[in-house]
C-alpha cells in the first residue's frame, strides 16, 4: 500500500514525474512501476479484472478496475480491449454494460464461434488478470436532450451498450417511459434476465428465437413487437444493437433509430478486381491484388498485422498508404491521395498500392 501511494504521488506531481522520467530514461517511469504492479502506469490505460461471472454458457461477465490513465466512457460507446494470447497482443472492441461514470467497467463478452479473443476470455479470464484499454470511441450514445419515450432493442451480446444507457438513465433518475426488447436464442442465453425482470418502471419483453413459447414475444421483431413495447403510441427515440438482421428490421419500422452492430460484415470479392500489385514496403513482400481487403491479402501473403474488430470500428489495423488508390468497402468511397492512413480491414486496392506493412 505504501509503494502504491508513493508511486501515485510521484506520477501525479508534474515536477517529480519529469524528474522520475529523466532518471529512468529512455524508457520512462512506467516501464519500472509496471514491474511492481502492471496497472501502475501513467501513460498506458490498463485495468485489472476484479470479478468474473459466467451468466450463461456462452458468455463471461468481467468487472474491471481501470487505472488513472483511463479517462472514462459515455454510455453506449465501445472500448478497445487488449489481451495477450500466446505471446501476441490481440485487440477487440467491446461495449461496457456499466453505467457511465460508475468508476468500474463491466463487460459481458459473448462467445463467437471461431472468435479467438471471445473464446479465450470466456474460457480463461480470471480475477487479477490485467487487460489493456487502448481507446474509447463510437457515437452510439444518448442525446444531450433526452426524449420522453425511449425504446431499447438488443440481440445477443448487443445488450451491453443499451444496458449501459438504461443503467445510466436510472442513475440519473430519468422519469420518462422506457421499454426494452431483448432477443436471444433461448432463456438460458439471455444475459441480465434477472436484473431486467426486477427493474421497476421499465417494460421488459424477451424474444427467444429457438424457443418462442418461453418468451414474451413471438417470432422476430416486427409491428406486433413494436406495439407490445409502446401500445398505441410511438417511441420518441429508438436504440438498437445486435446482429445486422435485427438492426435492419428495426430500422425498417423506425428509420430514425440509432443503431450499432458488432458483427463483422462479409465482403464479397468484386468482379472488377484489378490484378494490380500490392507492395508491403516494410516487409519487402509483393502480392497480386485479388480483390479482397488489404488485411485479408496481407494475411494471405504471410504477414500478421495487428487487427481488432475487422469492421472499421476499432482502428487498430490502421496503416500508412504511401501511394495508390483504395476503395472503402463500407462506403464505396475511393481515395487516391498519397501518404494517408487507412483501415486495412475495410479497404481494398484500386490498381497498384504501396502500404507501410
Write up what this structure looks like.
- The chain is α/β, with parallel strands linked by helices and about 350 residues long.
- The chain has nine helices and 17 strands.
- The strands form three sheets. The protein has a six-stranded antiparallel β-sheet.
- A hairpin with a 5-residue loop joins strand 14 (about 320-330) and strand 15.
- The radius of gyration is 23 Å and the shape is globular.
- The model has no long low-confidence stretch (mean pLDDT about 85).
Structure annotation, total helices: 9
- Write down the secondary-structure element order: HHHEEEEEHEEHEHEHEHEEEHEEEE
SSE-based structural type: alpha/beta
Widest sheet, order of strands: 4-3-6-1-2-5
- Show unreliable segments: none
Average pLDDT works out at 86
Number of strands: 17
Report the sheet with the most strands, covering strand number, pairing sense and barrel closure: 6 strands, antiparallel
β content, as a range?
25-35%
Roughly how many Å is the radius of gyration? 23 Å
Estimate the global geometry from the Cα principal axes.
Answer: globular
* Helix share, percent: 10-25%
Distance between the termini: 44 Å
